[in-house]
Recover the amino acids of this structure.
């Protein structure tokens, strides 16, 4: 079985921080590209960040550059998204996804169920 499980979402005031985690079960995340996506109500799904196989490349959408950081912890089989200086516009359901091809943007085969991030005062 393969499974991705997101955690770490919640309610945070503007300017606050959250750390999202994406943990894999049944496979080793290091061999996959892992992307974080988000979808706000009424909006298109948006790619937020991605880390490629073996950490060769990382990517961030412009709106989160300098605020979000993606990283791997192979010992925990987890990819995290550290989100700082959060804005109300960051409010969305956040999903992680794994690409077997190992490259960001090449297609994601497995998806987690999502975790809600709400930035509000």
């Amino acid at each position: 079985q393969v499974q991705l499980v997101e955690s770490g979402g919640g309610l945070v005031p503007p300017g606050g921080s959250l750390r999202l985690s994406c943990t894999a079960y049944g496979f080793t995340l290091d061999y996959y590209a892992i992307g974080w996506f988000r979808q706000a109500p009424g909006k298109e799904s948006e790619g937020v960040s991605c880390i490629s196989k073996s950490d060769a490349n990382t990517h961030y959408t412009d709106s989160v550059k300098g605020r979000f950081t993606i990283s791997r912890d192979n010992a925990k089989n987890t990819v995290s998204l550290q989100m700082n200086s959060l804005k109300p516009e960051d409010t969305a359901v956040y999903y992680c996804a794994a690409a077997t091809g190992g490259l960001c943007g090449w297609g994601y085969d497995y998806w987690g169920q999502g975790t809600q991030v709400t930035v509000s005062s």
